[in-house]
Amino acid sequence: LEQLSKEAVLEVNIPTGAPLWYELDGSGAVTSHRYL
Q: Which domain holds residue 11?
């Protein structure tokens, strides 16, 4: 969704059990994201 490079994906830290909420525009592009 965030169009990260392979290298950048390795640095992503998503806490276990923390839902990540994405908001998309009409074309499906990410406009924002946050943890719930």
A: 6-35
Q: 4 φ, ψ to 5°?
A: -80, 150
Residue 20 placed within a domain: yes
- Give the predicted TM-score (pTM) of the model: 0.62
HEC assignment per residue over 1-36: CCCCCHHHHCCCCCCCCCCEEEEECCCCCEEEEEEC
What band does 31 get if pLDDT is binned at 50, 70 and 90? very high
Residue 22 placed within a domain: yes
Q: Among all chains, which residue has been given the structure tokens 């998503």?
A: 14
